[in-house]
Amino acid sequence: MIPRKKIPRDLCLDNTLKLLSEGYFFITRRCKKYHSDIFQTRLFGQKVVCLSGVEAAKLFYDNNRFSRKGAAPKRVQKTLFGEKGVQTLDGAEHQHRKMLFITVMSPDRTDQLIKLVKKQWQLKSKCWEKKEQIVLFDEVQILLCEAACRWTGIPIRPCEAKYRAQDFGKMIDAFGAAGPRYWQGKCARKRTEKWMEAIVDKVRCNQLAAPVGSALYEITWHRDLNGCLLPTEVAAVEIINVIRPIVAIATYITFGALALIEYPECVKKLRKKVPSYPLMFVQEVRRFYPFGPFVGARVRKDFIWKNYSFQKGTLVLLDLFGTNHDRRLWFLPNRFIPERFQNRKDTPFDLIPQGGGDAKEGNRCPGEAITIELMKASIKFLANHLDYDVPCQDLRYSYVRMPTLPKSRVILKNIRRIAATNK
Ligand code: HEM
């Protein structure tokens, strides 16, 4: 019998503080140090195995070997995910709930959302012309929040959109935080859940009409495997699970705007309207800029992989950021090169900013098509329909803060709308 290999150990009483101080590089650095795609350490007071790379991603998304039950820390559930949402389910229950999301995000429904977002860009840019300058990230969060609420069937008054968008933003901003940022995220979630619960109750009492096919309708009337409606709190969590990540796309759009500033040749290419270019640009934004650092799951039952032994219950983290920058997969991974996606055949396990594997069968993000289409529409609008000046500002972003953003959140000045035909 071949003797088992020992998983390299990053010995330390607990590495949680190091994770917070090294951010997106925490897993990659140790993989480099141990010349290994796998190492073991202690995080959040428990033993954790960290994995990186395409082979590791294939393993991680094998549902027979990993389970999501008990994987997401309570602090993440109390801010980013919400409790008892799809992310915390497993097996048949997860599959059934996941289909709800897939239905709500059908290609037809996605088209409707993109139309709403395009309309919002038109409307908002008219207002921006009257302002001396705007903070793009803040404006895009509001714009997406309004479009996402309309699309899901959630009534929202224009004066409400700003603070609701800020609350969605605070939940996202809290995922890698301790201290005040965590508390702000937790309070924002409480407020938003209360708001959504009241809406679900109104729909169920026929006091509010939800358009058939909308997320509000489908989630409110969804029945679990036992034929029961979801408890109001869970329905609210799942509606937030649709709107919050749409608002989160503001981060990618802001990084996309940064790329347009830092690589002006990309603006020229977008203006040439080569049909394949917007997708390549968007894929590179999702690969290159840091957003989701890693995902976690627990070992379902003991197994051996590459002669390493995995024990039931162990928490395992897969490095999303590191895999998207892996030299074995990406030529010059630390350079922004949209053309790398020309003729590239991605597998479900190499470009994984929103998780890997299959969205229907597994835990991959069901909102990837929405993210890509919405980014394409937004980046095309920025490049082809707007002229603006970029004042002096701090556009640097940290690799330690999770999630991160350009420090100035991208300030644009003297915005002018341009008729598409002029470009
Ligand atoms: C900013 C863009 C987005 C990013 C970076 C992102 C990232 C992710 C990641 C990393 C996961 C976990 C994958 C895993 O566990 O293996 C995930 C899951 C999920 N995402 Fe997204 N996502 C985005 C946009 C969206 C959108 C637009 C929606 C819906 C409208 C959405 C809905 C969900 C849901 C419901 C899950 C849970 C899936 C499950 O547990 O099976 N996401 N996302």
Secondary-structure topology with pairs:
Layout: H1 16-22, H2 26-33, E1 38-43, E2 46-51, H3 54-60, E3 66-67, H4 74-81, H5 91-104, H6 107-129, E4 133-135, H7 136-152, H8 158-173, H9 180-204, H10 215-220, H11 232-262, H12 264-271, H13 277-288, E5 294-299, E6 303-305, E7 308-310, E8 315-319, H14 320-323, H15 368-384, E9 386-389, E10 411-417
Parallel strand pairs: 2-8
Antiparallel strand pairs: 1-2, 3-5, 4-10, 5-8, 6-7, 9-10
Helix pairs in contact: 4-9, 6-7, 6-15, 7-8, 7-11, 8-9, 8-11, 9-11, 11-12, 11-13, 11-15, 13-15
Bound molecules: protoporphyrin IX containing FE.
Structure summarized in a few sentences:
The chain is of the alpha+beta class and 423 residues long. The chain contains 15 helices and ten strands. It has a single domain, classed as Orthogonal Bundle (Cytochrome p450).
Note down, in words, how this protein is organized.
This protein has 423 residues and is α+β, with helices and mostly antiparallel strands. It has a single domain (16-422), classed as Cytochrome p450 (Orthogonal Bundle), CATH 1.10.630.10. Helix content is 48%, strand content 11%. The protein has helices at 16-22, 26-33, 54-60, 74-81, 91-104, 107-129, 136-152, 158-173, 180-204, 215-220, 232-262, 264-271, 277-288, 320-323, 368-384; strands at 38-43, 46-51, 66-67, 133-135, 294-299, 303-305, 308-310, 315-319, 386-389, 411-417. Strands 1-2-8-5-3 form a five-stranded mixed sheet, with helices on both faces. A three-stranded antiparallel sheet has the order 4-10-9. Strand 1 (38-43) and strand 2 form a beta hairpin. The model has no long low-confidence stretch (mean pLDDT 96). It binds protoporphyrin IX containing FE (HEM). Protoporphyrin IX containing FE (HEM) binds next to helix 5, helix 11 and helix 15.
